Protein 1
Amino acid sequence: EDYAGSEAMLDDINLINTAKEVVDEMFGEGKYFHDDFSAASTDMGDVSVLVPAIHAYACGAIGTTHGKDYFIKDPVNACVDSAKFQVELLRKLLSDNASKAKYIIENYKSPFNSIDEYLEHKHSLNMDKQVVKYNEDGTITLDYKG
């Protein structure tokens, strides 16, 4: 059986720009970094194809992400500064009668017309059959067509 995983992350450019403004104001110009592409998979990808979203990260951890050597080396940066950033981002989005948040929502372009269309898309990717067959000769046969 093969079931669809998370959608690719679709960071909203207007929300990215707002986050950058906050970082510039709080920590100084040039401290904001946005990776235009990531092969990582997360449920935030599913959220981001339906509503404006970003997947922000804070500095302060070292080691391999999800690895046994991963730990928080700088808790102030990773936790306290991260929390301050999140609160300030919310303040910026909601100030002036939430004008920035309203602008971001109004200008967001989802690849789907509705949640139902998104759910139909996800369901269409599922296959209730053996997709990968391991052959006795060591080869693999893929049956990925619906």
Note: DSSP finds four helices and four strands in the chain.
Protein 2
Amino acid sequence: MDQTNPRPRVVSLLASATEIVAALGFEERLVGRSHECDYPPAVRGLPVCTAPRLRTEGTSAEIDREVRGRLARALSIYEVDAGTLAALKPDVVITQTQCDVCAVSPADVEDALRGLAESRPRLVSLRAEVLDDIFEDIRKVAEALGEPAAGEALVARRRGRMDGLAERAATLGTQPRVATVEWVDPYMPAGNWVPDLIALASGENLLGVAGRHSPRLPFEALVEADPDVIVVFPCGFDIKRTLRELPALTKRADWRSLRAVREGRVFAADGNQYFNRSGPRVVESLEILAEILHPDLFHFGHEGKGWVRV
């Protein structure tokens, strides 16, 4: 960062990055956001610089078909409002390179800024694939804001909470076998940092792999795994919408044969606000898992807001 500009103007085009800036204590430096940035609530009043190029109101299967169709034709999922971005005159623009579907990419931003001679912001690209990467991204954002000490302090606080929970969970003698659902139709178990969270909460992760994108699997893979617990949090969906999409799973012939279904251990969580966001609230995601997996030991108050029993 230019040392003559100690308070850079920041546009965040990634919901988790917006949360990072706010958690670092510099929310007032945000001057623009993506269409998905909604936390903390005050950021909703900022100018919006992006929009999806596809319908987001369809079913899981319809959204999946449209996304795959656009990617197959090398078409972007999002558009950047070049006029709004230029008018905001940001010093720092934060985006990501982790997923073509999650948010705008650096290429999208560079295309929007091409030809705008007056706008030469610093582009910061985040790429969280496992849990440790989330904390490195916090440090990266803090450094871009010229506040590395704030980044280290935030990481220490969040890691401390997670370590304390993991130490308590490790005292338990059982590890429930956990299957996640990050997309309903087609079935996709969660990868990336979610298996790390399950391990910290003293669960045994099934199907999804840490550090890898969520795979497309046949429903029969879930039946064969026969988990003790199923946690459903489709990417970008809140609890209400998740419950609306559940029949794509629950109407399948083998659904009721699953151990988790028979024993009443199927849960819906808010993937949009928690599990799908690689930001500071990954701590709350861990707490939600702990409450679900070990209800006799953990009570953080997330039930009804962050998760519900199906």
Note: DSSP finds 13 helices and eleven strands in the chain.
Protein 3
Amino acid sequence: YENGEGIARCDLLCDSEAGHSFNDNEKGIPVAELNIIWTEGIPADLKGLCAFIEEMDRPTQERMLGLGGTELDRAMMRSFSRPFVFTGSPDDFAALRQYAQKAGLSVQRGGRVCNLSGVHNKASYLDEIRRVTGQGEGPAVLVGFGDGENDSAMLNAVDAACIIPRPDGYILPLDKAGHQTYIAPRVAPWGWLDVAQR
């Protein structure tokens, strides 16, 4: 969750009686601390190009995230990241990323919004997941799903990558040679189901 800050329901993957457990991700930074670092470490002109989702009214949040009701409520419950919309140029975005990196933060771009967080990504727990689940009859096979740049590290690290095209036709490219890749025939939300069934 939250671009690799942690993993939920590890009880479904781990046999606690056998001593399997996950290490805490020490790279997660609580939102209150993120705000302080953001305020002190990012130039005002770049901050002015960022509109944080939690500061928007509910109808705008629904439109930006494509969610409503309890789904939107869940999406807004962030402890270690701040989703935002960036309105600047590609050069501005590169500068924002550089300042964030210098401040010990990361800026990741997803399918709909960007995220400010600590230095971690969706691949942060994959080695641990592989370690604790690969001790049965055969090695673990990890399957990942994604559609945005913030999914790249995860999709390049799993055994089978499931990619959902965006409404504008963009299909996320991957770097890993010999990777099993499945591309959904439709965009979200049905594309997620299509590629999962495949």
Note: The mean pLDDT is 88.
Protein 4
Amino acid sequence: MNLTTRFEVVKRLGGGGMGDVFLARSLIDSNQPYVAVKRIRSLFAHDAVARARFEREATVSTLLRHPNIVSTNEYGVDDEGPYFIMDFVEGQSASDLLASTSADAEPLPLDVALSILFDVASALAFAHEFKSRSNAIHGIVHRDLSPDNILIGYDGMARLS
């Protein structure tokens, strides 16, 4: 089933070098919360190396289940190319949080900054030490650690995207 027959894209949330992330809601289940859909940019959809990198990111991210990592729930390919569906984190990015504190001339409180850093370090340690069923370490390295990829939920928890 095509992604566009199951979800309605509400708006673009952001993007990086290879992909764009969109807020979407289910067209099938009205009780399902919003999700984030990451799609490879059309520029890279037919680039075998970029597509393999995107697919590897999707595959690895579906394995990682940790409270401080945004969960990836599904990976697929449709007429528009590869995509993956992640939990939508209601809140803001660390980048937006830092920008708002800079605009107010109020520094980020130390306890808030330390809490965010602790959550991110916990996520990175989990990913780096992640073992497969055969007990082999995957050696996962996050290659785009930036404030844009740290999402702070309204629940106060930071999640790595």
Note: The chain has a mean pLDDT of 88.
